[in-house]
Amino acid sequence: MSQVLHTPPPAPVRPAEDDLTVLAARHGLSVSGARPSLPAYVRQLWARRHFITAFATAKLTAQYSQAKLGQLWQVMTPLLNAAVYYFIFGVLLQTKDGVPDYVPFLVTGVFVWTFTQSSLMAGTRAISGNLGLVRALHFPRAALPLSFCLQQLQQLLFSMAALVVILLVFGVPVAPSWLLAVPALVLQFTFNAGVSMALARLGAATPDIAQLMPFVLRTWMYASGVMWSIDQTLGGHDGLPSWVGPLLQVNPAAVHIDLMRFALIDSFDASRLPAHVWLIATGWALLAGVGGFIYFWKAEETYGRG
């Protein structure tokens, strides 16, 4: 008897994975949570610029909503800090000796430094402190650290109004050089935003960084000439290692403070500010702004997971 052989029916033909990828791309579909290309990411951020602005304004308004003095604390907080630093450093440690217009010098340094300090602290918690928002809504996550930096810039502008009054009270005249404060703030904002985005990625992966940052920022503040003149101190200490002077002078926080002091205080004379200080500030802004943005973007698909 002959044996009948039965061949199994052919398996259904399924589209190849590559074909599915092509089909999805044709209809504008992408993997859920996938990181967009860098140009697409920039376009998404620009499309949400109104959200970034509104979020920053809402956070600023809510910051002191429970305080009786309300938004006055936006100005009073850095002023009180300046008063404390004046007593400790200007009176007790006599760092004001040899520094012209020391009160405007000190208040300008405190206000400019506070902008950087607050931006970086807020950036560190931008993702880890807003996980509910990150997990609930789909938007480019860089909007969060950018909005926090914008919030701090808005707060600085309130403080600058008080700074103008202090300058006039202490005899500093209005001068065309005050217009240089605008490009100086643009460079500082770009630097702050870039570093904040880098810290936001680190803080999202390791929230404990937020506990370390106050110590890092406090050390950085003391090395940035907020309460004392870097040039005067370096000139009076010949025994310092040779690398200390250049390191302090290229310190980005010190550079931003110098730009603002030379712009606003006539005894510093903006025309005497070396051109390389602007170049250093621009270099820091490009390095931090572009580098921090790309570093943050590379982990876009990981934020909010786990």
What does it look like?
The protein is mostly helical and 306 residues long. The chain has one domain. The protein is 65% helix and 0% strand. It has 13 helices and no strands. The chain has helices at 17-26, 38-47, 49-63, 73-92, 102-124, 131-136, 143-169, 181-205, 209-222, 230-235, 244-250, 252-264, 275-297. Helix 3 crosses helix 7, helix 4 packs across helix 7 (143-169) and helix 5 (102-124) runs antiparallel to helix 7. It is globular, with a radius of gyration of 26 Å.
Instruction: Domain count, please report it.
Output: 1
Oligomeric state, counting identical vs distinct chains: single chain
Strand content: under 5%
Radius of gyration: 26 Å
Overall shape: it is globular
Indicate the structural class: mainly alpha
Overall pLDDT: 84
> Which residues form runs of ≥5 with pLDDT under 50?
none
Give the helices and strands as they follow along the chain. HHHHHHHHHHHHH
Helix count, DSSP H or I runs of 4 or more residues: 13
Strand segment count: 0
Terminal-residue CA separation: 66 Å
Largest sheet: none
Helix content: 55-70%
Summed up:
The protein is mostly helical. 65% of the residues lie in helices and 0% in strands.
What is the element layout, followed by pairings?
Elements: H1 17-26, H2 38-47, H3 49-63, H4 73-92, H5 102-124, H6 131-136, H7 143-169, H8 181-205, H9 209-222, H10 230-235, H11 244-250, H12 252-264, H13 275-297
